[in-house]
Amino acid sequence: MERILVSSCLLGAPVRYDGRAKTSGSAILARWRREGRVLSFCPELAGGLAVPRPAAERRGLQVITIDGQDVTPAFRLGASLALAAAQKEEIRFAVLKENSPSCGSNTIADGTFTGTKIPDVGVTTELLRSHGIRVFNENQLETVDAMLTE
User: Fold this and answer.
1) Which residues, in sequence order, are bridge partners of residue 94?
2) The predicted structure's pLDDT at residue 49
3) Average pLDDT, stretch 5-33?
4) Measured between alpha carbons, how far is 131 from 51 in angstroms, rounded to an integer?
5) 16 vs 1, 31, 34, 56, 147, CA distance in Å?
6) CA within 13 Å, CB half, 30
7) Residue 1 has pLDDT above 90, yes or no
8) pTM for the complete prediction?
């Protein structure tokens, strides 16, 4: 059975910077979990960041916290570990949290901490895609589900 890498926060894990989850109520995601398809992963935790932690946003190739700390190495490590986990399981698809500096697949915050979104991708999404893994967000579950049956 083909597995899918899924952001832990979408599965109810309180791993976000603010100590909360962004639990998805999707029936598709619930079915994938029952089927054993889901590989839960949080690149930020895997990279060594704590919960809670200061908010961070991507600025070009760097990820900077709201208080000015460069956390790029932790984000890059988490992305590398996500890739390793996906490759070990021969994963072709990932569903990651939109707008995240790690996981955004279409939009991320612009680095000004004003809530402004820009078209760009997170560090983990960028690495996964560069290795042929197709990354989607929590609003594209039907698309991924259809691809699994192809």
Assistant:
1) 5, 135
2) 98
3) 97
4) 29
5) 29, 24, 24, 11, 28
6) 5
7) no
8) 0.96
Locate tokens 């200061």: which residue?
Answer: 54
| pLDDT digits 0-9 by tens, 99-139 | 999 999 999 999 999 999 999 999 999 999 999 999 999 99
Q: Which residue has the tokens 């490590």?
A: 77
Q: What's the rounded Cα separation, in Å, for the pair 94 and 136?
A: 6
CA distance 19 to 97: 15
Handedness of CA 24, 29, 35, 37 (dihedral sign): negative
Q: Where are the alpha helices (DSSP H) in 40-111?
A: 43-46, 72-88
Task: Please tell me the distance from the alpha carbon of residue 100 to that of residue 37, in angstroms, as a whole number.
Answer: 23
CA distance 14 to 21: 4
Collapsing DSSP to helix, strand or coil, 57 comes out as strand
| Structure-block tokens of residue 98 | 């939109």
